[in-house]
């Protein structure tokens, strides 16, 4: 573990993924909704609210988003496959995943993402059929977006509210 300036005035502890990923998942799944930002064709940020679900297999953290694979979203990600997923809660807990991403249009991936949400833990799990037009993973409006983080940050609100006296900021970055 090494300590580095966190870019926000607080000391961030650079940790191994096996420390940061579980803390990230706990906070992200508790908050549920993320502001996900892509870059448009004019190099401007474009944000939307999405609902990722995350899994850590002990060596890699992967996120999935069930989303409508619109032409605009595809155009942004075809041009620049990187997104920022930012979560925030009223107690000022926040976490960020900077990710490389792509749509996986295979039938297997679409079924797997559908099943992850349909069988996911509360509060991130839900029945995808509640979304208009999503009657099955084969629906043309249902897409599987895969997130592969290259940087994570977990920032408990207690750090912010106590001036760094309580809690610690965790940061991981892929080499």
Beta percentage is: 35-45%
Mean pLDDT: 92
**C-alpha-based Rg, rounded:** 17 Å
CATH superfamily: Electron Transport, Fmn-binding Protein, Chain A
The largest sheet, given as strand count, sense and whether it forms a barrel, is: 10 strands, mixed
Helix content: 10-25%
Order of helices and strands: EEHEEEEHEEHEHE
CATH architecture: Roll
Count the DSSP helices. 4
Structural class: alpha+beta
Classified by CATH, the class is Mainly Beta
Q: Write down how many β-strands occur, each being a DSSP E stretch of 2 or more residues.
A: 10
Uncertain runs: 1-6
Distance between the termini: 14 Å
Shape: globular
CATH topology: Pnp Oxidase, Chain A
Number of domains: 1
Describe this structure in a few short sentences:
This protein has 175 residues and is of the alpha+beta class. The protein has a single domain (16-158), classed as Roll (Pnp Oxidase, Chain A), CATH 2.30.110.10.
Question: What is the secondary structure topology, with strand pairs?
Answer:
Blueprint: E1 2-5, E2 11-14, H1 17-31, E3 34-39, E4 45-50, E5 53-56, E6 61-67, H2 71-79, E7 82-88, E8 94-103, H3 107-118, E9 143-155, H4 157-161, E10 169-173
Parallel strand pairs: 2-10
Antiparallel strand pairs: 1-2, 3-4, 3-7, 5-6, 6-9, 7-8, 8-9, 9-10
Protein model, in words:
- This protein has 175 residues and is of the alpha+beta class.
- The chain has a single domain (16-158), classed as Electron Transport, Fmn-binding Protein, Chain A (Pnp Oxidase, Chain A), CATH 2.30.110.10.
- The protein is 23% helix and 38% strand.
- It contains 4 helices and 10 strands, in the order ββαββββαββαβαβ.
- It has helices at 17-31, 71-79, 107-118, 157-161, and strands at 2-5, 11-14, 34-39, 45-50, 53-56, 61-67, 82-88, 94-103, 143-155, 169-173.
- Strands 1, 2, 3, 4, 5, 6, 7, 8, 9 and 10 form a 10-stranded mixed beta sheet that branches.
- Strand 7 (82-88) and strand 8 form a beta hairpin.
């Amino acid at each position: 573990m090494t300590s580095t300036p966190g870019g926000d005035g607080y000391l961030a502890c650079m940790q191994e993924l096996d420390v940061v990923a579980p803390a990230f998942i706990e906070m992200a799944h508790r908050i549920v909704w993320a502001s996900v930002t892509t870059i448009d064709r004019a190099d401007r940020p474009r944000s939307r609210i999405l609902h990722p679900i995350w899994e850590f297999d002990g060596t890699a953290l992967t996120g999935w988003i069930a989303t409508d694979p619109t032409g605009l979203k595809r155009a942004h990600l075809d041009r620049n496959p990187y997104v920022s997923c930012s979560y925030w809660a009223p107690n000022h807990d926040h976490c960020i995943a900077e990710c490389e991403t792509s749509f996986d249009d295979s039938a297997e991936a679409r079924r797997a993402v559908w099943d992850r949400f349909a069988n996911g833990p509360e509060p991130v799990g839900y029945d995808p059929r509640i979304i208009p037009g999503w009657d099955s993973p084969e629906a043309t409006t249902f897409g599987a977006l895969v997130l592969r983080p290259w940087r994570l940050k977990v920032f408990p609100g207690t750090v912010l509210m106590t001036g760094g006296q309580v809690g610690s900021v965790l940061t991981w970055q892929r080499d």
